[in-house]
């Protein structure tokens, strides 16, 4: 109890300081200038945070590779940042997803025990904590300094200037504490002279609600027009859909912001209730906009743009009207991305796995070539949009997680299973994306798989769902073996039960035992 009191007092302190930060007169000039100087800024970051800091594992990886600061400086100046990062990767300077969770680092005969928390940037003081939502245990809490959070809020302004019609109602579906995203978004909007009209949140324990209310009141006392969260009834997104439809009836379109599953539930509620929310612009993060979700948005005339965030490195990119699918312009003044071709485990397919590098001297954590088990195609786009004008001409197309389902030595590619869960099952048996969830857990003796079907989907015959699901699994890559193993080992079960939520309230169609999650930071 005392620990919580200290924790939230500290948060209230950092939050108070955050509310007093002033937006620059011209954020676009700032972003353009920093993007133009990104290589110098990267060197300004890594000199103190890595080369002069023996705590971070990257210090030792660079030494092992025989790379001194002067060498890196020469290489970046002569060959550019991305090309240098490729060379560093080839020389073993990278960190895998597992290593970032604390697994020892092996490079040939070299072995390093390390603490992932020591990738922290010594020059970026602690601030409000964010948890990576996918991990219920052992999650890496990330402290982002207020300065870094505030800097990243310029990307939000850029996104809104680019994609959201002026005068739109603003609705957020973001989480309440312990995730600070909803509060900080409302604060940022208020700092820019606008206001969030509605904050619809999923329920949480009393103490999180109380802590959230306390910080909203703190912001109000400091003069900011902040909404109190409206807690949605258990698994019922109709109030949000009705609110947006009513705003539309009164002549205001809505800008809706939240994670992909929450926004999809709002769209599905509008579709099922015959509500007109056409023209809603939606910014989604946390998960890829899968084809199943896109169909639901399309059905109600909602335009969805992705925002790509990885908790450890921050906001990576945002969509624009010219990019299709799950594609984003990279905010290259904060992050550099390269990719390497690698097999998706146990499959005949290969993916372009993304490797992310911090380039912003304000970064909370400093990584060189962090692999996050996401893939995508890196390229360039000069679409003439606002992002391009500021110098964000690098893009990642079709970003998605290659998070995999394993167990009994079999593997299914996550995206195939997600399609089955979000499109095929709802269209055959009823319900919407988010109503069917496949949960993988390490049971006592084996990995257990459970298909949870929300009671809301109204499925009467779960044996039929089971038979259909196993048949469909056989047709996807690697599925024949999975199906046989699942049937054989009796580790697959279908139940009518609400899909599980992550610690921060997110519902993932594929809830894997070891999949890293990411959250709105
Ligand atoms: Zn663009």
* Poorly predicted residue ranges: 132-140, 406-411, 514-521
Enumerate how many helices there are, as a single number: 17
**What value does the average pLDDT take?**
85
Ligands in the model, by name, code or SMILES, are: zinc ion
Structural class: alpha/beta
- The Rg value, from CA coordinates, equals 23 Å
Shape: globular
Q: Output the strand order for the largest sheet.
A: 7-6-5-8-9-10-11-12-16-15-14-13
Q: Helix amount, in percent?
A: 25-40%
Q: Strand-residue fraction? A: 15-25%
Termini separation comes to: 25 Å
Largest β-sheet summary: 12 strands, mixed
Please count the beta strands (DSSP E, at least 2 residues each): 22
Please provide a written account of the structure.
The chain is of the alpha/beta class. It has 17 helices and 22 strands. The chain has a twelve-stranded mixed sheet with strand order 7-6-5-8-9-10-11-12-16-15-14-13, sandwiched between helices. A four-stranded mixed sheet has the order 21-20-19-22. A two-stranded antiparallel ribbon has the order 1-2. The longest helix is centred in the N-terminal third of the chain and has 18 residues, at 2-19. The two termini are 25 Å apart. Residues 132-140, 406-411 and 514-521 have low confidence and may be disordered. It binds zinc ion. Zinc ion binds at residues 320, 322-323, 329, 381, 383, 385, 387-388. The site of zinc ion has 9 residues, from helix 14.
């Amino acid at each position: 109890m005392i620990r919580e009191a200290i924790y939230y007092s500290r948060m209230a302190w950092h939050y108070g300081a955050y509310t007093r930060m002033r937006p620059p007169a011209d954020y676009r000039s700032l972003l353009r200038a920093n993007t133009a100087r990104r290589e110098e800024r990267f060197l300004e970051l890594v000199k103190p945070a890595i080369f002069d800091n023996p705590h971070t594992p990257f210090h030792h990886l660079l030494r092992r590779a025989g790379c001194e600061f002067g060498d890196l400086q020469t290489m970046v100046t002569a060959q550019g940042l991305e090309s240098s990062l490729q060379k560093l990767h080839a020389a073993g300077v990278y960190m895998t997803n597992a290593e970032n969770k604390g697994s020892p680092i092996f490079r040939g005969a070299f072995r390093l025990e390390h603490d992932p928390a020591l990738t922290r940037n010594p020059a970026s003081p602690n601030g409000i904590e964010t948890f990576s939502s996918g991990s219920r245990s052992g999650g890496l809490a990330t402290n982002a300094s207020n300065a870094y959070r505030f800097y990243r809020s310029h990307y939000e302004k850029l996104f809104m200037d680019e994609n959201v019609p002026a005068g739109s109602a603003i609705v957020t579906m973001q989480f309440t504490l312990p995730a600070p995203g909803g509060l900080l978004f409302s604060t940022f909007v208020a700092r820019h002279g606008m206001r969030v009209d509605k904050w619809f949140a999923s329920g949480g324990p009393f103490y999180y609600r109380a802590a959230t209310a306390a910080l909203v009141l703190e912001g109000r006392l400091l003069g900011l027009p902040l909404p109190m969260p409206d807690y949605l009834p258990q698994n019922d997104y109709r109030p949000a859909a009705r609110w947006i439809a009513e705003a539309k009836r009164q002549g205001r379109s809505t800008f809706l912001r939240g994670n992909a599953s929450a926004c999809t539930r709002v769209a599905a509620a509008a579709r099922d209730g015959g509500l007109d929310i056409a023209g809603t612009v939606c910014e989604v993060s946390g998960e890829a906009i899968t084809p199943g979700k896109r169909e639901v948005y399309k059905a109600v005339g909602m335009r969805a743009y992705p925002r790509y965030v990885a908790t450890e490195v921050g906001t990576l990119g945002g969509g624009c009207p010219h990019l299709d699918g799950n594609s984003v312009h990279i905010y290259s003044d904060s992050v550099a991305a390269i990719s390497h071709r690698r097999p998706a485990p146990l499959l005949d397919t290969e993916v372009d796995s993304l490797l992310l590098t911090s380039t912003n001297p304000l970064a909370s954590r400093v990584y060189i070539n962090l692999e996050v088990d996401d893939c995508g195609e890196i390229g360039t786009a000069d679409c003439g949009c606002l992002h391009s004008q500021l110098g964000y001409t690098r893009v990642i197309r079709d970003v998605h997680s290659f998070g995999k389902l394993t167990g009994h030595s079999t593997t299914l590619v996550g995206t195939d299973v997600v399609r089955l869960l979000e499109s095929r099952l709802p269209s055959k048996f009823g319900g919407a994306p988010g109503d069917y969830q496949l949960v993988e857990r390490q049971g006592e003796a084996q990995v257990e798989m459970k298909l949870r079907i929300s009671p809301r989907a109204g499925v009467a015959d779960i044996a039929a769902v089971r038979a259909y699901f196993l048949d469909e699994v056989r047709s996807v890559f690697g599925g024949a073996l999975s199906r046989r193993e699942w049937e054989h080992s009796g580790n697959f079960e279908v139940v009518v039960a609400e899909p599980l939520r992550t610690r921060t309230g997110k519902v993932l169609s594929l809830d894997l035992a070891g999949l890293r999650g990411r959250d709105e930071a």
